[in-house]
Design a protein that fits this description.
Blueprint lengths: L7 H4 L20 E4 L10 H11 L3 E5 L4 H6 L3 E8 L8 H18 L3 E4 L9 H22 L2 E5 L15 H11 L4 E6 H7 L3 H8 L3 E6 L16 H10 L5 E4 L7 H12 L2
Parallel strand pairs: 1-2, 1-8, 2-3, 3-4, 4-5, 5-6, 6-7, 7-8
Length: 275
Amino acid sequence: MTRRSFVPAAAGLAGLPALAADQPVKRKGRLKQGSTRGCFGKGATMEFMCQQAARLGLVGLDLIGPGDYPMLKKYGLISVMSSGTSGINKKENHEKAEKQLIENITLASEGGMPNVIVTFATKQGQPDAEATELCVAFLNRVKAVAEDKRVTICMELFNSKVNHPDAFADHTQKLVDICKMVGSPRVKILYDIYHMQIMEGDIIRTIRDNIQYIGHFHTAGNPGRHEIDDTQELNYRAICQAIVDTGYTGYLGHEFTPLRDPLTSLDQAITICDV
């Protein structure tokens, strides 16, 4: 089996169409794209996802851990966003989170993976100022490792209105402030366009104003977190053109749940963003 061919018997899924013998899709590639597992539909195996990611012109998969690095490499792909740690706004999590994050940074570096993700615990009454202080203290403890290993720590933004009630990191400025206080080129923001459309809107202006602090992007259509086509309110072609125009050299990962044929919707999303 070649890295870009598809054998239906090896797909290991139910209900997804076989795209046998399809030729690789050529992309402009000005914006390097990846995809999360959910975009491939239920039941997709890692090997099937890698085969189709390579065929569709993606550079990698998103939110993938070290255990799957060998399969990615088999198909010439990378993990555009790798496992990191969580809960760094709570002091009681710091010891465990530091050990976990350093281990994942090291594994990402050894595997040639560019980014690791960091998320946050719910506030549960915690003041934002305290959460910010604890996040800065934690990141100051690990930033030298990230700098030495040349891996970027990306803190993800969430919406607290629909999907993540009581989320701390629900506005761009909160994480921009943390980035400024930490002052490391290896501590940045995972700017989730779907989440920030719900919380803030004004997506293109916010990206332009803060691009130096953004290390990764996620997509999904709003409302609903489904396809990024004209059934939803975001103009992803214009957004991606604005991202490219800033000189951004990082990655964008698709993170939507398809309502239609998964591979057709993913191909469409990649095409929309391939400006």
